[in-house]
Amino acid sequence: MPFFVMSQKNFQEIKEIGFSKLINKLSSYDGNKRDEIIKGIGDDAVVFKDKEGTVSCASSEIFLEGIHFDVTYTPLHHLGYKIVTAAVSDIYAINAEPVQLLVNIAIPNKYSVQMVEQIYKGIDAACKDYNVQVTGGDTTASHQILAISVTALGSAPKKNLIYRNNAKIEDIICVTGDLGSAIAGLRILMREKKEWQERSTESFQPDITDYEYVVKRQLIPVARKDLIEAFQKSGIKPTAMIDISQGLMADLKAVAEASGLGAEVYSPAIPITLDTRKVADEMKEDVDKYAFYGGEDYEMLFTMREPLLEKFREIFDDFAVIGKMTNQYQELKINTGEGETIQVDLN
Amino acid sequence: MPFFVMSQKNFQEIKEIGFSKLINKLSSYDGNKRDEIIKGIGDDAVVFKDKEGTVSCASSEIFLEGIHFDVTYTPLHHLGYKIVTAAVSDIYAINAEPVQLLVNIAIPNKYSVQMVEQIYKGIDAACKDYNVQVTGGDTTASHQILAISVTALGSAPKKNLIYRNNAKIEDIICVTGDLGSAIAGLRILMREKKEWQERSTESFQPDITDYEYVVKRQLIPVARKDLIEAFQKSGIKPTAMIDISQGLMADLKAVAEASGLGAEVYSPAIPITLDTRKVADEMKEDVDKYAFYGGEDYEMLFTMREPLLEKFREIFDDFAVIGKMTNQYQELKINTGEGETIQVDLN
Fold this sequence. Notes:
Chain A has helices spanning 14-17, 19-27, 76-92, 113-130, 181-198, 212-219, 225-234, 248-259, 274-283, 287-293, 309-315; strands at residues 37-39, 46-48, 54-64, 97-108, 133-136, 139-142, 147-157, 172-176, 240-244, 262-266, 299-304, 319-326, 332-335, 341-344. Chain A is of the alpha+beta class and 347 residues long. In chain A, the strands form three sheets. Chain A has a seven-stranded mixed beta sheet, sandwiched between helices. In chain A, strands 3, 4, 5, 6 and 7 form a five-stranded mixed beta sheet that branches. The model of chain A is unreliable at 1-7 (pLDDT under 50).
């Protein structure tokens, strides 16, 4: 996975074709299609129809250059993919199905037409993976930075919806996949960038093959569509759910607060890969901090009545039970597994 | 209407309270409420229910500092109001009713908490005027510039929907209100800013009282909810509709192209106020250019069978008939009223 380099031979300035031609180019973009869409790109507003007995839902994300991504190490198609992941992940997190996307992009002059197309390529790949359709949005100029905002719209049978506020005392707390790998990937990318900057006169080629897993988790995280499908297939419904975008403890806190409960997490149960541990060791950092506070993993946290655990495991097993909901309102505790319990204070 | 000045005595830096406290502050914001909203701010995604027999619709806008607004002359509550106008105007433009908004804001450190609250104050005022509810979104940091993205979601009985692509030959072309005043207001604001910059050591107080109408049209344009209500009340449906955000000719071109037709506009019929003419005279510019190409007026352009005109005028009369759809595909013509016909080439 090479660093992103602005290629000179394939660089068509946007002013060369003009903004209105660029918009035409992007509007004629022929991406993934959905039956629900009555009117997509090409009018003032998009129009869509829900199936009978369902409700609609929506979520929105904004990514800014320099804040949410660094173009020196973010391939632009990955950026396109990632913001779609972030938006649809919020739809999955209420146990609904994303259907369409509105995409706003503000593009600085330093970007070429090809670069913008790369972003759309990533958006398109994500649309295929999540089976959603781009139906509209706004494309404008920007002075300094690239800004992308994506609104995902979806639908679900009303009875399927799962909010954050319904976790019960003694519910088990589950998380999918592994945690902390996205921040581990970011640490590697930032280290390589620093080295690249320091040696900028030499032909420095960063070697991240040893870190492929964590770098991929940072650059192209995947939303847990498979978990939602497993809930549908099993007929099992968690009591509360949230996607882990801010970090495990921040997102668990949101569930605990909304449900009027506390939570206790058993630290040794947190799923952390060897790749992530290796990065933390190299950086001389605490891998638990990556897992607890890292964010951007886009894994799912859900709470469930304990007796349902075994049955659900038969359908879906890429998750770990990491703790229990408690009756101590707003108290988040970490049990270290060595007889110590730490009170977590997030602010 | 004084210029916007960053007040020192009411400036609380965002880092003073931290981003998560700011987000809490904004999430607890108690704005306009709608019955359709099942779940608003406070979960991963917003959930809403349409009335029976209706379809949902959505539109999205992004505004960037330095591109869409200049904070030296844009009061922040006006900015909040204006982006809501831009988003709901697109919903009205398909003859639907906006219901809710998702608001993404990326805030640079140079902004104070009070400034962000001003933006929300404007959003809230617009929500009341258009009867929509803020239901979610994303609040993040930004390095240099303020970026706001608003997605409006709405609904309509399916039979009411009006697209751009259904204008018929010989249909009359109508526009609400007046055109060119928003660009006239911008001209004044830019002139005053220049003077203010040149005399920055003196205590320069720009006097824009003589230009109140045009400046207001630039800073706080109002979407034409009243037109949509008139269509409902009269039972009359135009053949095609678009909101005039890009400029009369650009938006008329979109209708003509989508409908596979051409259009001829009678220049003396374009509604232009004396205030706008006065600005153009002062600037030694052609007022017709303001009206034809200015943009940001957020008036509505609609096409209609001529025989319906009289009946519709009885219900609603803030519009002018400015021309007719023709069978010359993609040809836009301006009849000057002095025996001359100009072919318009937009690219």
